Amino acid sequence: MPKMKTHSGAKKRFKKSATGKIRGRHAGLSHILEKKSPGKKRAKARPAEIAKADVPNVRKLLGGGR
Questions:
Q1: What are the pLDDT tens digits along the chain (66 aa)?
Q2: Domain locations along the chain
């Protein structure tokens, strides 16, 4: 049986935290930034924990027992 390959797009977008949680970037930071407050933009710049429902799919894409 061949090895599972890591999904190239997923490995660029998601990282596993030290405690095993999956972190990704917030949505809403690519355009229409003038009307958003600086505090909101700073908060969105930090990684976010992804939704509980999405975790199994992302873990499968990352592979390698992550």
A1: 888 899 999 999 999 999 999 999 999 999 999 999 999 999 999 999 999 999 999 999 998 665
A2: 8-62
Taking the alpha carbons of 58, 7, 5, 47 in that order, is the dihedral positive or negative? negative
65 within 8 A of 3, measured Cβ to Cβ: no
Q: E strands of 19-63, at which residues?
A: 22-24, 48-49
For 36, the token pair is 């958003």
Looking at domain 8-62, which CATH architecture does it have?
A: Irregular (4.10)
